[in-house]
Specification:
This protein is an alpha/beta fold and about 220 residues long. Helices cover about 35% and strands about 20% of the residues. It contains 8 helices and 8 strands. The chain has an 8-stranded mixed beta sheet, with helices on both faces. Helix 4 runs antiparallel to helix 5 (about 140-150). The model has no long low-confidence stretch (mean pLDDT about 95).
């Protein structure tokens, strides 16, 4: 399905019944990374797996900025008349979720983010050098985005006004100290560092992802 918001088309897949839950993928991916989790999540929630602008089947754009993507989510929620949905975001999706909570108070009811960065220097050195090389070779907007954004301050993160779960793998490419800064700055945030997991291993395993996020999202149902 497609909805036209913020001057672009946003593609999404919908499944289940219950309180709304938005799923946001990472850089260079699409809603398809959640296919392994959607069936189980749909037993409790109305799930919306979304393609961010410039990704999947959503509109192509010249440049990418996380603030625009956060506005897309706010307009998506408004257009579909969703009542304070829960939101899970992986990597770039987590950055978008944090910005949506900061910039649009009252928009969400719960937020879970995994592998979200505080700023471009959150990425460990080897991965950061790889991103720079790929941007040099391709001049691609997706690589440029990760090299220039986000730039969260603790003051910004302190404006997140919903229960928040912050996740990262014990072997994540995002530096653990930066993940801890995010969790420490968001009021009341819960932090889980997952032993043995890398940036995406638990996210791409649908059953494992559900085991981690469902108890958090089921609170308050």
């Amino acid at each position: 399905m497609t909805v036209h918001v913020n001057n672009i088309d946003i593609y999404y897949e919908k499944a289940g019944q219950g309180p709304p839950l938005l799923l946001l993928h990472g850089n260079g991916e699409s809603h398809k990374i959640f296919h392994g989790a959607m069936g189980r999540l749909a037993e409790k929630f109305t799930v919306y797996a979304i393609d961010s602008r410039g990704h999947g089947k959503s509109s192509r754009v010249k440049g990418l900025h996380y603030a625009d993507m956060a506005e897309d989510m706010a307009r998506f929620i408004e257009a579909l008349e969703l009542e304070r949905p829960r939101l899970y975001g992986f990597s770039d999706g987590g950055i978008i979720g944090l910005l949506a909570a900061i910039n649009y108070p009252g928009l969400l009811s719960r937020l879970a983010v995994s592998g979200a960065s505080l700023n471009p220097n959150s990425t460990s050195g080897g991965w950061l050098r790889f991103f720079r090389a790929m941007y040099w070779l391709t001049r691609g907007a997706k690589w440029k985005l990760m090299l220039e954004e986000p730039d969260f301050t603790e003051e910004q993160l302190a404006r997140v006004d919903v229960p928040t779960l912050v996740l990262a793998g014990g072997r994540d490419m995002i530096l653990e100290e930066h993940t801890r800064v995010i969790a420490g700055a968001v009021p009341g945030a819960r932090l889980r560092i997952l032993p043995g997991e890398n940036h995406m291993s638990y996210v791409f395993n649908g059953e494992k992802l559900c085991d981690i996020i469902m108890p958090f999202f089921e609170e308050g149902i």
